[in-house]
Design goal:
Elements: E1 11-14, H1 16-21, E2 22-32, H2 36-43, E3 47-48, E4 53-57, E5 60-64, E6 67-68, E7 86-89, H3 92-102, E8 107-117, E9 120-130, H4 133-157
Antiparallel strand pairs: 1-8, 2-7, 2-9, 3-6, 4-5, 5-7, 8-9
Organism: Corticibacter populi
Subcellular location: Cytoplasm
Family: Belongs to the SmpB family.
Amino acid sequence: MATKDKKQPSRIAENKRAFFNYFIEERHEAGMVLYGWEVKALRSGKAQLTDAYVVIREGEIFLIGGQINPLKSASTHVSPEPDRTKKLLLHKDEIKRLIGKVEQKGYTLVPLALYWKNGRVKCEIALAKGKAEYDKRHTIKEREGKREVERAMKSRLK
């Protein structure tokens, strides 16, 4: 009996800065409410999450600052806004739990990635706690240490 390989979801955009600025506590997958021109632009990879953040307003979750740049061939009767606020879709009990966590001191919601799953755009959001300056320096030091070890191993193999 053959086993089906689950396809890895294809990434549209990643927020690498979030991993540097925050400790990631929990991850959640949310759907997105998008217009047609936004979906077309995402298919060609015209998205950016670098300065994006997630807010909770009146029991709903929104992505703010995530840019989806329109294609040159966008329709003439639609005026595309690249940095439009987009609604994220989660179950009501998940939203209530996230509201309780975000109200605690130091916690926030950040978008980590946009990707395709079963033909739909998903946004991976994370409950995160901000890093202090010394934590960021520690992260840089670890990253540089790993690079040096990899270089040494690579030169040794030659």
